[in-house]
User: Which sequence fits this backbone?
């Protein structure tokens, strides 16, 4: 069964540009590999709160390993606000 993964976190304002480059690289890797539908969203009234959306992920465990490696490779963790971490929520499709 496919899964929809949503990863949210706050970015440090002083690392905004490096964070944008890092997440663009992560999304590009995910799109060319395990998940063609990968997007970045920002909260409307809180622009430093970002959410990566990955739709129809076929193998959640494998995907999360690949995603974690990409995040570390591109240094996205170093761009988060103090005390922040990436939170992952997973959903499945109940009806179309």
Assistant:
């Amino acid at each position: 069964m496919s899964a929809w993964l949503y990863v949210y976190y706050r970015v440090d304002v002083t690392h905004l540009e490096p964070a944008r480059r890092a997440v663009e690289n992560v999304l590009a890797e995910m799109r060319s590999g395990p998940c063609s539908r990968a997007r970045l969203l920002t909260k409307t009234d809180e622009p430093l709160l970002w959410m990566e959306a990955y739709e129809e992920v076929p193998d959640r465990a494998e995907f999360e390993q690949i995603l974690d490696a990409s995040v570390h490779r591109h240094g996205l963790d170093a761009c988060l606000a103090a005390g922040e971490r990436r939170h992952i929520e997973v959903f499945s499709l109940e009806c179309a």
